[in-house]
Amino acid sequence: MHGGRGERSGRGERGERGERGPRGSGRGSGRGRAPRGDVRTAVLMLLAEEPMHGYQLMQAIADRSDGRWTPSPGAIYPTLNQLEDEGLVTVTAEAGRKLVTLTDAGREYVEGRRETSIDPFAAFASAGPTADLRGLIDELASATRQVARTGSEEQRTAAAKILAEARRSLYLLLADAPVVPEPPKTPEA
């Protein structure tokens, strides 16, 4: 069941371009996510270059955004279904995979909006060091969860000290104070 343009879905209203949320706005740009309309634009732009499988589209989006935006299958495949329903793409089985190709109507749609469409990858190219920090934060959180789940008590204690020291160093950095590691605490006898 695919709602048409402007129809209500179970999770919110669809905007004019297919985005979810009030009045069609997306969820924002946190954690490598983009509004659904941006996924749609990215998919159409990539398919204008060559036919691709769903997984190839996810990889191409990740590559074009330098890894800062990796859409999930839950973002790509509903978008492809919607584009197919609109007659903008065809999906054909090829070697056990579904190859997605722009139709003539899809090519006309892309060409007609080339001048007015915003490049969905531009925001990631200009994101600069802030986006790099977000990626590092995500990686640090992932490593921390791994230690919390599978590490020994000693490893979890060491990880807590490392995180506390990192937090302290970041605040010192903001205070323009020299970042000097705290001397190790010796147990009192």
UniProtKB/TrEMBL annotation:
Region described as Disordered: spans on this chain: 1-38
Biased composition (Basic and acidic residues): 1-22
Domain Transcription regulator PadR N-terminal, first and last residues per copy: 43-110
Source domain of life: Bacteria
InterPro entries per record: Tscrpt_reg_PadR_N, WH-like_DNA-bd_sf, WH_DNA-bd_sf
Pfam families assigned to the protein according to its UniProt record, in alphabetical order: PadR (PF03551)
Record-given protein name: PadR family transcriptional regulator
